[in-house]
Design brief:
Radius of gyration: 31 Å
Shape: elongated
Helix content: over 70%
Number of strands: 0
Strand content: under 5%
Low-confidence stretches: none
Order of helices and strands: H
Mean pLDDT: 90
Number of helices: 1
Structural class: mainly alpha
Length: about 70
């Protein structure tokens, strides 16, 4: 049985494509780093204060419950 195979060699310069892809990779890494920084900032500026507010609310509730009934 004869093989039905065709091999083609293309003399294509992919250097420009590789450079473009490396540029895209660098931009994506910068973007990921920026998103990570935003997440850290949100954690410290939103989540931590909300947790503090929750703790203060629970303390206030406990204080109110301890007061004698009139």
């Amino acid at each position: 049985m004869a093989k039905k195979q065709l091999n083609i060699i293309l003399g294509v310069d992919v250097g420009a494509l590789e450079r473009s892809l490396k540029g895209v990779e660098r931009r994506l890494q910068r973007f990921a780093s920026n998103i990570q920084n935003i997440g850290r900032e949100l954690t410290t500026s939103v989540t931590v204060p909300l947790a503090g507010l929750g703790a203060a609310s629970l303390k206030a509730f406990g204080d109110i419950e301890r007061w004698p009934a009139f």
